[in-house]
Design brief:
The protein is an alpha/beta fold. The protein has three domains: 275 residues, 3-Layer(aba) Sandwich (Rossmann fold), CATH 3.40.50.11540; 77 residues, Beta Barrel (OB fold (Dihydrolipoamide Acetyltransferase, E2P)), CATH 2.40.50; 72 residues, no CATH class. The strands form four sheets. The protein has a six-stranded mixed β-sheet. A four-stranded antiparallel β-sheet has the order 2-8-7-4, with no helix packed on it. The chain has 14 helices and 17 strands. Helices cover 29% and strands 19% of the residues. The termini are far apart.
Amino acid sequence: MKTFPTGGVHPPENKLTSNCPIQVLPIPQSVAIPVSQHIGSPANIIVNKGDSVKTGQVIAESKGFVSACIHSSVSGKVNKIDTVIDSTGYRQTAVFIDVEGDEWVDTIDRTDEIVTEIKLSSEEIIKRCLQSGIVGMGGATFPSHVKLTVPAGKKCEVLIINGVECEPYLTSDHRLMLERGEEVLIGASILMKALNVNKAMIGIENNKRDAIGHMTKLATAFKGITVHPLKVKYPQGAEKQLIKALINREVPSGRLPLDINTVVHNVGTAFAVYEAVQKNKPLFERVVTITGKTVSKPGNYFVRTGTPVSKLIEAAGGMPEDTGKIVSGGPMMGKALSSADVPVVKGTSGIILFPRSESERTESKPCIRCAKCVSACALNLEPYLLMTLSEKGLFERAEKERITDCMECGSCSFTCPAGRPLLDYIRLGKSTVIRMAREKVVKK
């Protein structure tokens, strides 16, 4: 069975919500919608305090090429424009809206009918993605219209749809494929048209056999789309590893998938593209997994952006008494939240409530030179060395050792028997090296 050849680990899957159908989370009384829910420039706010807005209305326009529009996820009045603490722990500008009913903009098709015919041209699809605020839904939140805009001299030969969802606990993509599989495939066809390719491959790990069977059956009606089961191994869902597993091509260091004639989009992105192009619905809600071993009612929910995480926790039966940490995203690459009042954004794939017994770090001990972190690294890096270089401030050497190639998957920290904070120091070193590189460019 296909997989990537180098490194990888097998953390406990804990897919506790794989059999939980997607529900719709009730709309909260108020939302705080950040204007930066994507990689790139924050959007420019175009509403003011006291303005009435409708669900799906643009409230912040994209600023520059690498940016994305932000839409209201509710209808009501703008209470204020202020800052909110996001999942990174930093404050950022947000539009606060008090909810009054749920009146949508008239241009959105709210019927349940699945629209199969793709009427828009390639250029119109890309423009619609820009206008609808579509970003990568796998967690990276890269504006999708940028990925779909193939520069002169470049060519895309194959589209890869990422249905791997290799992070433990998370099941939002799994449920989306089971319940909205046809829309995901139409979305893939739309992406193929935008990229002008006639081949698409959907990669799904073998622990989702129901999704593999369902999508394979549906795909027979779609020209050029095939479904490929993959061996269960983390971090299979990373772009470079998925590309290697499916088409046996390697993305060179510092380059992008398009440099080897391929583009990767998440299944959630494909679904969002379907809704944007076929239903004229902007991206203002997404499927979020709320889970944890001691959570009484874990599940998967369609959640409006700007909804406080606390509302998801309420729907899951409330915060367990033994909760030690709230994590946004998966346990391997996610970030611990400082508060349950953090808003859900476009990149929020899951919320995990960890009991204290699993959220406390083990004591860090001296490195025993076992090289398990080297064996686990899917990018052929030397994590123990990168940690040491970062710890000692040897950032120029760290750059030479390809610290910026690290995708921060956490496999090294997971496998370290000494409990060393490898990834923490690598993140420090990586961010410092990137900052130093930017400063050099500015000085020139």
